[in-house]
Structure prediction request, 282 residues.
Amino acid sequence: MKIALFNNNQIGIVQDDVVIDIGDIISWDKNCPQESLEHFMKNFDALKKEIEEHIPYGSTYSLSEVKLRAPIPKPSKIVAAPINYLLHRKEMNEQFQTSPSTVDKLGFFLKSPSSIIGPGETVELPFRDRRTDHEAEIAFVVGKKAKDVPSHEAHNYIFGYLALMDITVRGKEDRPWRKSFDTFTPIGPWIVTGDEVENPNQLDMNLWVGDELRQSTNTENLIYDCYKFFEAVTSVMTLYPGDIVTTGTPEGVGPITEGDTVRIHIDRIGEFSVNVQYKAGV
Ligand code: MN
Prediction:
């Protein structure tokens, strides 16, 4: 299923070019979308049949006429992989002389949850004199509390997948500073449940700035794939329902500037775009 938040924090299932409101049958509270979403994910297996039966009778909206919202509005944390594609590691070493990371111990960092925005919203650049880049990433949302989960069990804890842009100011500051400005984590277009994605480690992913294709890869090129990265993260910290984990970006990162439209597409997940402008006053 494709689970979207739209308009005034309504929840719906996306099918083809429509979204069907399911708020009535899952005790959804529009005023607390994150808490409602976590409750929904915990109870999803029990609710699934009822949702499917409801779909022919639910209020239906044309996808082109709704305002999609960030599908996970306020996670307790966003855990992000650093350099996790070989060719991206090469370009970072060449352009920024980053210290080579060791492949056998991939670390991670945290992005601020307050940096999240949804499809169609605007990335606000905080500096005119600093390079700020797009990074296309496949991310997933945690469905069950998880600690010390081996990779072969990770799929039982991952609720679904989404596309994520890890917007980044280049420079020497620590990653959380460079990646946590408000608006620096566009996510969307919705959550696709794991059963519908099948294999998240074999999906084409592309990102365009305007009409220019900047990043193009398949997630089979991940150094730590989604499941292995899940194991690495949960060996350190507990993940809670609603947390977002993002797996890192492939080669082709590049600067964005005012007036740009940035679009990400991942097979089986979908696509969305955001606009770019300077933050007011800079
Ligand atoms: Mn990244």
User: Anything to note?
Assistant: Residues 44-54 form the longest helix (11 residues). The chain has two domains: 2-65, 78-278.
